# Entry
Amino acid sequence: RKLPDSLKELPCLQKLSLVGNLFSEEDSNLEILGELKNLKHLDCSHCKLKSFDWSWVKDLPHLESLSLEGNDLSGTYTNQLLSTFSLIPSLKVLSLANCYLTDLPEVEGGFTNLVRLDISGNDLTDLPVFLSYLPQLKWINLQGNPVFSGMDEDMNEYANEEEVEIDPNV
# Structure
């Protein structure tokens, strides 16, 4: 439920998995992670996170991947969260799968190095325009969202095919 202060004694730590911990909003001590300056991969999936202050995450200059999969990140909190994450210049992989999101707010600037975005299993009916302006974005998972429901059926048609040929003239 609470991260120990002694965690900051691991300045060389590059990968941390906190999957399945039950952090309390009042006294989780998550901000201690902001002192792990060499952290590259942080997995906080299924931790009962809801409305935490994540401002410390922009103090992680080398953070490349962040997973918050399976946490309830719905509501107005999402605006602040995405704005904060967009300021991490090294962030390449972000997973917000199964986070009860009904929409993604527009984010101005940021996410300049984001390559992979997993927003599957939410309730998104529209995608924000800012996604089309991300210069490095190569992969996005939209499965399980209403915005993707028509495509799910099309993709299932090809799921058992060994090879799908795409005609660029169509």
